[in-house]
Amino acid sequence: MSQFDPVPIVLDINGTQYRVFAEPRRLLSDVLRDDCGLTGTHVGCEHGVCGACTILLDGAPTRACLTYAVQAQHHEITTIEAFGGDGNLSPVQQALHEEHGLQCGFCTPGIVVTMEAWLAENPDPTDAEIRNALSGNLCRCTGYHNIVAAIAKAAARRREGSPT
Amino acid sequence: MKPGVFSYEAPATVQEVLQSLAARTDSAKLIAGGQSLAPMLNMRLARPEHLIDINGVSELSGIAIQGDRLSIGALVRHDALARSELVGSCCPMLAHAAGTIGHYAIRKRGTIGGSLAHADPAAQLPLVALVLDAEMEIRSARGTRTVAARDFFQSIFTTILEPDELLVAIHVPQSRPRESWGFRLFNRRAGDFAIVSVAATLARGDNDSILRLRLAIGGIGPVPVRAEQLVVGDPARLLSKDWPARVGAMVADTIEIQDNEQIPVAFRKELVAALIREVLDQAVDRIPEHPL
To answer: N vs C: which end of chain A shows fewer Cβ within 10 Å?
Structure first.
């Protein structure tokens, strides 16, 4: 066995422990999808530009494609699977739904994860601030207007304290 | 877009990092936030045999005043720098510039030490380190040395760091009384690296006199450069109504701008003039009427 071979890795994802074997070079995005079966995290550019693979590492938005799974041990990982569910959408998910903030949906998991964290830190943003925050997530369907409207709506609802 | 094979370790102390670097010399690469290195690994532009992950080295993440300097651990992330009250009050240009790096998720992960050691010629933090006369504290198993920012950046993506050295902290001298600042970068899309960026500080004396002007420009050569030495005659000594524009024109006319296929020199020359004008306008507007 060489030092490049798969190593045992324990990941804490959405409050559940996953035990996998992965080479040190395996991207967290691939391990989440292929080894843990959590396919909500999407893989786009694999060099940090598109934002589709964004997850939370100890609560901070992080590109899963720029993180190696071996690095994520002993940290809390939160993926899109932790946000809402059938009939119980998160504020950003619900607002994206209502404002038609997605078409193909490929970029949506990254946008939801990023913006839920961003709104927690920036509860009362201007449209310009929302646009700036969204600049790290590429969407090639919507033209962004509906996403901006959705984030503004989600922000207003969060401030009022009602999830939907 | 998958990296080649590498082995991996995550030491907990600077001492362990230095020992590992000394043992492996050229074959190892340090990884901090990974926001520049991981893309290079994924695209196989970099093929280190071994990664030394310093994210768990807690002694590298402090921000503190040490004497007349603000000292920032190499592992401080851009978002923490941008939000730090201490940095915001002692070194507002640094906090502002950190908030303009990349995107939100990138700033949550990228580190000041990583950005400086990566030495992208268009990056914000090398420019700010240069204009603020920051000093880099560098350690290896052989000892410790401190290098001024103007000696640290050697060429594109190249610093004075030896393969066995670790950048552990950045020390920034505090501003003088009645010293203000300006910072501006031009890019085509939010989050992109700058085409040209400019940073300046201005310390003002009585009767519109200039006690100290520091000016630095990024994106026009292999490393960011200081440019206040190109300001001569009256504009070097006295503020006037058209001072920002005069300085911008004077510097743009005389500074060397490296040719580049994508961005014509003529365009970057105009950007240099325009950004200097804006940055100096900001600095003039920010000067408090009375000494702090």
So the answer is: N
**Residue B5 contacts residue A23 (beta carbons within 8 Å):** yes
Could you tell me which residues of chain A have a Cβ less than 8 Å from any Cβ in chain B?
A: 3-4, 23-25, 27, 30, 45-48, 51, 54, 57, 60-63, 65-68, 70-71, 114, 118, 131-133, 135-137
Residue B210 contacts residue B240 (beta carbons within 8 Å):
no
Residues B267 and B192 in one domain: yes
Half-sphere exposure in the Cβ direction for A18 (13 Å, CA): 25
Look at residues B174, B195, B215 and tell me which one is the last residue of a structural domain.
Answer: B174
Whole-model pTM: value is 0.95
What ipTM was reported for this prediction? 0.95
- Number of domains comprising chain B: 2
Give the domain-ending residue among B145, B174, B203: B174
Evaluate whether B4 touches B29 at the Cβ level (below 8 Å).
no
- List residues of B whose CB lies inside 8 A of any A CB: 1-8, 10, 31, 34-35, 38-39, 41-43, 51, 53, 55, 79, 102-106, 108-109, 189-191
User: B137-196 pLDDT, tens per residue?
Assistant: 999 999 999 999 999 999 999 999 999 999 999 999 998 888 999 999 999 998 999 999
